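Annotated sample (chain length 72).
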Amino acid sequence: MCHQFDCGCERHAYAGRGHHHHEGCGCGHHGHPLRHFPTKEELINEMEDYLKQLQAEVKGVEERLAEMKKGG
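Output written by the structure step:
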């Protein structure tokens, strides 16, 4: 699982911390060792990024539904 949304590996999905999701995506683009205890600020930034992704996904679904209802 990749928590670095801009690495380009396209293996991004959010899973809550507390399980073993700290391994990274394995793409090799991150260039830093993984820490097991992110700071509060890092967690907040990660959650805010995830929220933006979810909001974009909702917008895409709404647009697609509108197209389908129009007959597109």
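Annotation: The chain has a mean pLDDT of 77.
Annotation: Helices lie at 40-70.
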